[in-house]
Design a protein that fits this description.
Number of helices: 18
Radius of gyration: 26 Å
Structural class: mainly alpha
Helix content: 40-55%
Oligomer: single chain
Low-confidence stretches: 1-31, 39-47, 356-363, 441-452
């Protein structure tokens, strides 16, 4: 589970697209220097400013619901932004260290909420005890099923109707992922399916609460939606261990309104539950200008992790990386190396194979020969990845023409591969520049040996 959440996908936000289309039509009417200046201003505005959504019916009801729970926001308003979709926009300039949200405990959805509800009695009697995650997911599904009768309806109405985590994507789309991400996506799918299967007995025990069969209410798709809601939107809030729950950590809290904040790897915030004020508080560590989107950082995650856990890819992510598998590393290492197994064992023992290489500090140069060999290996691996990435981008582009119904999912995968290609191309340039000092005194014997 994760610390923060994301907003809607840009392609699902028709409001933004409609606005951009109208602006484009207006710009086409003008010509000349004045029109160019106007177009530039409109473009800059469209990138940084969003379309106010606070007057939409669902947000009007949501605002009333929050006010009843003792929360009113004077800093932010909901808006739809090009590039990120639904988020929160600053009403005034925000200063460094300023409190941007202080959400009362009464607004939070936690296991305490579930225990106090009609589900509490059934959870207390259930054997074996359900997990805190199952309790939250069950409550979400039950409240969504209740519709207008739910006290949480205004919040449920602004939650995404669907998610783009790998577990929600078509298998043919997941097959287009880079191998490390594909393996983790398959693990994620198996984990959620197992979660559903192991929860059926608990769902059956809830039959007295419903007139319909619980199998129709707590379906796999319903539980998947609830699981994704918690997985992508929960903030960290530690609770004490209770006998009515299984031993898994109880650290989840859904934070209505706060969970509209989108992710940016370039910002810093301080966020935690304040035991004294009994509020979940978020302070910005950097300023924000009036009418701009306010961001938080979900953590220093690379794009594969962001896609796996949150269902999106961050453009120009400073934490982005390309993973090199152990098998591929062995493939490109010299076959004459007698200490190959020992070296690979050391890498595995120190978790270097599955770790982003950028986190590994560069050591001192052992010898020119060692540097030459390392550069050759790195270049060959880099070129291999560039060819593979270009091939996958061509494949995705072709599928976008053939699989129109999957265009949004395929665009997500295309963005991931495009961002990885940028890393590889930049890496290739760096490797070429590093090799220049050795170009005059190249080890011909090693080069010949390598080509064998």
């Amino acid at each position: 589970m994760n610390s923060f959440v994301r907003g809607c996908d840009v392609w699902s936000c028709s409001n933004c697209l409609d606005t951009m289309e109208k602006q484009t039509k207006r710009m086409k009417r003008g010509r000349g220097r004045t029109s160019r200046i106007r177009r530039q201003k409109l473009f800059r505005s469209s990138v940084s400013r969003g379309v106010n959504e606070s007057c939409k019916p669902e947000f009007i009801e949501f605002k009333k619901w929050l006010k009843d729970r003792k929360f009113e926001d004077t800093n932010l308003i909901p808006a739809c932004f090009p590039g990120t979709g639904r988020g929160l926009m600053s009403k005034t300039s925000l200063q460094e260290g300023q409190m941007i949200i202080s959400l009362p405990e009464s607004c939070l959805l936690t296991t305490d909420t579930v225990i106090r509800s009609y589900l509490g009695t059934y959870i207390a009697k259930c054997q074996p005890p359900p997990s805190p995650l199952l309790a939250l997911c069950t409550f979400l599904v039950s409240e969504k099923h209740a519709g207008d009768q739910s006290l949480w309806k205004p919040y449920l109405d602004i939650l995404p109707k669907a998610y783009t985590c790998p577990v929600c994507l078509e298998p043919k789309v997941v097959n287009l992922f880079p191998e490390p991400l594909k393996a983790k996506a398959e693990e994620q799918r198996a984990r959620v399916q197992g979660f559903f299967s192991s929860s059926r007995d608990f769902f059956s025990s809830l039959q007295p609460l419903f007139s319909e069969a619980v199998e129709s209410i707590f379906s796999y798709s319903a539980l998947l939606w609830a699981w994704c809601t918690v997985n992508t939107r929960a903030v960290y809030m530690k609770h004490g261990q209770r006998k009515c729950f299984s031993p898994e950590p109880d650290t989840y809290a859904l934070a209505p309104y706060l969970d509209l904040l989108n992710h940016s790897p370039d910002v810093q915030v301080k966020a935690a539950f304040n035991e004294e004020t009994r509020c979940y508080e978020v302070r910005t560590a950097s300023g924000c200008r009036k009418h701009e989107q306010v961001f938080i950082c979900y953590g220093p995650h690379d794009n594969q992790r962001l896609l796996l856990e949150y269902g999106f890819v961050s453009i120009q992510n400073p934490h982005a990386c390309v993973y090199v598998s152990a098998d591929l590393l062995v493939k490109y290492l010299p076959s004459t190396d007698k200490q190959m197994n020992k070296k690979m064992s050391i890498l595995k023992d120190h978790d270097f194979i599955d770790t982003c290489w950028k986190k590994v500090l560069l050591g001192e140069i052992i010898s020119d020969t060692n540097e030459k060999r390392s550069l050759v290996i790195a270049q060959k691996i880099c070129h291999y990845f560039i060819e593979e990435t270009n091939a996958m981008l061509r494949k995705v582009s072709h599928m976008k023409d053939e699989e129109v119904a999957l265009i949004n999912q395929l665009t997500l995968v295309e963005t991931l591969w495009t961002e990885e290609l940028k890393i590889l191309q930049a890496s290739a340039e760096i490797l070429n520049s590093l090799q220049m000092p050795f170009s005059c005194g190249w080890d011909f014997q090693y080069d010949v040996e390598w080509k064998r």
